[in-house]
Protein: Terminase large subunit gp17-like C-terminal domain-containing protein
Amino acid sequence: YPPEEGRSYIVAIDPGQAKITQTSIGVLTFDKDDLGNYKPRWCARDAGLYSPEVTARKALEISDKYNRAMIAWEANSHGLAITELLKHRRPIYFRKDIVTGRQGTEPGWYTSPGRRGTKDYMFQTVTRYLPDLTCHDIELVRELRNFRRSVDKIEVVGPDDIHDSLAIALVCFNPKPFKRGYMGKSGWKW
Structure:
């Protein structure tokens, strides 16, 4: 989808390892229906075996084309090179403190492993928005078919780079964040 004047977008990057794994750069926005529901729209995607420098250059060009969209990326492992290249660009995604809800000073989305890590949260967010997603990207659909639910966990049986860029976009640009906050050691305040 081409950019629309006055609309907010996010450019999400799942960095790869240059000549080994694929880098995915995706553009997402939200449409609002007559009832006030937010529906995600996957506007554009570029993926390939890109170095961090090429990835950063492409992300900047895409961001400028889409109304200077906010840029978010996975900021662990090989994403640290993207952090170094894009840290002075604005707007970029900064991590938020889960207790206070305030924006921090660390750029990029941190993906933690494990059953209760942010990877599980990303999967749940994609699952929540999937029925309403407008998408004409056959490669994203192909990757979504690589997810298998076994007894108590999710297994990925193929590539998931494009899925991860969609997930990063949804968690960093969520129009429906949870209103309740973390309340000390007792858990979430309902």
User: Anything to note?
Assistant: The chain has one domain: 10-172.
